[in-house]
Amino acid sequence: MFILCHQNKELISYHAINRADIQDTDMEAIMDSIVDSLFCFFVTLGAVPIIRCPRGNAAEMVAVKLDKKLRENLRDARNSLFTGDSMSAGQFSFQRPLFVLADRNMDMATPLHHSWTYQALIHDVLDFHLNRVVMEEGSSMEPSPGGARPKKKSKKSYDLTAADKFWQKHKGSPFPEVAESVQEELDSYRAQEDEVKHLKSIMGLEGEDEGAISMLSDNTAKLTSAVSSLPELLEKKRLIDLHTNVATAVLDHIKSRKLDVYFEYEEKLLSKSNLDKSLLDIITDPDAGTPEDKMRLFLIYYITAQQAPSELDLEQYRKALLDAGCDLSPLNYIKQWKAFTKMANPANYGNSGVKPMGLFSRVMNTGSQFVMEGVKNLVLKHWCPGKPLTCDPRFLLHFVSLQETDDYRYFDPKMLRGSESSVPRNKNPFQEAIVFVVGGGNYIEYQNLVDYTKSKPGRKVVYGCSELFNAAQFMKQVRRHTCPVSVCSCSSVT
């Protein structure tokens, strides 16, 4: 994954691209900034990509400008940045990568979705930035004796790095599976710790017979081996403590906000499965989530509905949301967004074949003493996304003609300009693809692509976005809008 590191990320944010009062010059400056960053990315990569993009949005503007910038650089072979050492150093030295540009406005439901994988959940409910999670520790603020100021919660930070083997293995796993794995790691550590303690106790054997001496010699060798592995054991303990604390904090949010209920209900909305309860029941349940959770759920319902609710039903939902303390400004924006896009090709949320499993599936052994034992009553040990990103991964790597992507524009900066009708449609499958979302991305889409490539050995997909936000950050930007414009502001791009 890569993210554009702009000096002021607000200048290339979703709100900046889609604000109602944006001027053409401002839009050009935003697109130029994104293109300059992407150009540097491909120079560093040492590869000239084949570019595909949808029509009529900011992604198309970026594609046109990037194609032009690449062509201009390739035109002067002597001064081109894509010759010499940079090309040989590229990861994609044997085949050019496919670069697919997507627009955030193509899929507004995924950024609002309550996820169920470890990394995405941490990003959603905790303070997680640049692989560092910051959490508050200690009990709630209590008055100190003698009328002193109340004690504030201390903050603790944890780095989730590539050196953390548990994180690398489980960051994309469903949360209950992570809890189970933490328990297994804890049991393994305790077994090793008990073995060391046992060896220490029997080192005091008495007697000088040959059997005792032989046993002492064997145990000495075992103890020496145990001592030599002590640094590894201590590091294992540190990582277990780290993930126990982080996962417990996530679990607290899941239990207090009933995030498992939201996740399963949203999965059913995204996959067009039968609903086992009324949407109003969740919205009006005072114990089910925060006002923002309820608003996110309703927006996903509104976005994915094949037919908009009647005015009578909508008024009923509005009243329930207001009674729950929700801010309705995001709904006003989404209504306008849907009106702009309903004549275009909207995101199709019903083709994933997802069939959410039942609630309360057991994912941990009965009788576990682990602090997260309560997680065994949560949903879905095995998780599938309701929407595989804004583009179908089959299109990314196979270049097949899918209904959703058949109308994508094609750019090859190495070829002379020609008619797009002459675009080669039956090429060999791509082994490498780069997906970039203009307007912001999230860990849900990233994990979707990671899971897809795991099932396709030899294939590589890199995910990038202009900014990385969680649902709360995305909602904050949506609230600032009065009406969307980027869905129609680039229709004249050629």
Automatic annotation (TrEMBL):
Top-rank lineage group of the source organism: Eukaryota
Key words of the record: Protein transport, Transport
Protein's UniProt keywords contain Transport: yes
GO biological process: protein transport; vesicle-mediated transport
One Pfam match: Sec1
InterPro entries the UniProt entry points to: Sec-1-like_dom3a, Sec1-like, Sec1-like_dom2, Sec1-like_sf
Entry keyword annotation includes Plastid: no
The family this protein is said to belong to: Belongs to the STXBP/unc-18/SEC1 family.
Protein name according to UniProt: Sec1 family domain containing 1
Species this protein is from: Oryzias latipes (Japanese rice fish)
